[in-house]
């Protein structure tokens, strides 16, 4: 059975400046699939409605995946035949739906005098409406026969396999040109996605997080080990979730002090069956971390 959870917490820097949390997150778990989603609204002043844009991105993703999974057997057949083509269609439909949502929002909620106050008239005229709502997005989907995910902009997607092995299946963002932030508000956003598809290996859990979580760690290895620890608690996720929220709230005081969102979907049966394997992987990771620390101290 698929299960999941999601949480967004306001970053320490945003608390100090009395800013809203610009992140959004959600998950949905069904019989045929589960999806974890996070989105990170941009912080620069021209994206002054990015917290609304990130929520629209999360909603657009879940609605789009729901639509594609309306006939699970047909979708899975088409996806396995040509996953790149289907993924591109999913991504384009997400962008289209997001645009519909933000344009509907601006129609019902015109820009206020206060929102314009940080700009000269000339500056404001140059900002495309969609930019008010700019956001990154990450989604991870677990299905009956395969798993996949896609990402636009920064943040992280982590896969935990049944043997306790943990990876980031989507590498560094190379889709965005230099000095341009990959964002759903960009005119060429459909060409800025990165994605992964796993048709064979058994994935126990998929986790998405905004970049505030990654920057709270000192290394990729520490970041991945953290996800193995989370996976080791998924057999009792409801009891564990409050502690996890406390931890990511604490982590907003490290790194960039940014908002943090974490969303997870997992196979509950597999998480229980592989608990001993996960616990051994956690202990091994602790030993390796101690060895790395000792090596640094002895330099």
Which key features would you list for this structure?
299 residues, single chain, 21% strand, five-stranded antiparallel β-sheet, alpha+beta, Phosphatase 2c, domain 1
State the end-to-end distance.
48 Å
What do the pLDDT scores average to?
A: 94
User: Would you identify the regions where 5 or more consecutive residues have pLDDT less than 50?
Assistant: none
Gyration radius, rounded: 20 Å
Would you tell me which CATH topology applies? Answer: Phosphatase 2c, domain 1
Class based on secondary structure composition and strand pairing: alpha+beta
Tell me about this structure.
This protein is an alpha+beta fold and 299 residues long. It has a single domain (2-297), classed as PPM-type phosphatase domain (Phosphatase 2c, domain 1), CATH 3.60.40. The chain contains eleven helices and ten strands. It has helices at 12-16, 50-68, 72-81, 83-108, 113-116, 121-125, 211-214, 220-231, 237-251, 268-273, 275-297; strands spanning 2-9, 23-29, 33-40, 137-143, 147-152, 156-161, 166-167, 194-198, 203-209, 260-267. A five-stranded antiparallel beta sheet has the order 1-10-9-6-7. A hairpin with a 4-residue loop joins strand 6 (156-161) and strand 7 (166-167). Helix 2 crosses helix 4 (83-108), helix 3 packs across helix 4 (83-108) and helix 8 packs antiparallel against helix 11 (275-297). It is globular, with a radius of gyration of 20 Å. It starts with a strand and ends with a helix.
């Amino acid at each position: 059975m698929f299960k999941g959870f999601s949480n967004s917490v306001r970053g320490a820097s945003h608390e100090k400046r009395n800013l809203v949390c610009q992140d959004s997150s959600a998950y949905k778990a069904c019989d045929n699939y589960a999806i974890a989603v996070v989105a990170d609204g941009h912080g620069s002043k021209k994206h002054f409605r990015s917290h609304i844009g990130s929520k629209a991105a999360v909603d657009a993703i879940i609605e789009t995946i729901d639509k594609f999974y309306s006939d699970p057997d047909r979708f899975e057949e088409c996806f396995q035949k040509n996953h790149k083509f289907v993924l591109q269609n999913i991504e384009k439909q997400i962008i289209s739906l997001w645009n519909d949502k933000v344009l509907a929002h601006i129609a019902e909620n015109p820009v206020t005098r206060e929102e314009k106050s940080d700009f000269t008239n000339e500056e404001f005229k140059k900002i495309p409406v969609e930019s008010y709502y700019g956001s990154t997005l990450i989604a991870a989907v677990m299905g009956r026969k395969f798993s996949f995910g896609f990402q636009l902009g920064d943040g992280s997607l982590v896969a935990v396999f049944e043997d306790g092995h943990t990876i980031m299946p989507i590498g560094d963002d190379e889709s965005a040109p230099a000095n341009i932030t990959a964002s759903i508000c960009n005119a060429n956003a459909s060409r800025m996605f990165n994605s992964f598809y796993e048709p064979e290996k058994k994935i126990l859990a998929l986790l998405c997080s905004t970049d505030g979580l990654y920057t709270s760690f000192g290394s990729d290895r520490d970041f991945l080990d953290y996800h193995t620890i989370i996976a080791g608690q998924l057999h009792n996720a409801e009891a564990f979730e409050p502690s996890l929220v406390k931890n990511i709230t604490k982590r907003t005081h490290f790194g960039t002090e940014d908002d943090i969102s974490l969303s997870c979907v997992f196979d509950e049966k597999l998480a229980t069956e592989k608990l001993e394997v996960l616990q051994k992987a956690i202990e091994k990771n602790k030993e390796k971390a101690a060895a790395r620390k000792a090596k640094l101290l002895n330099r």
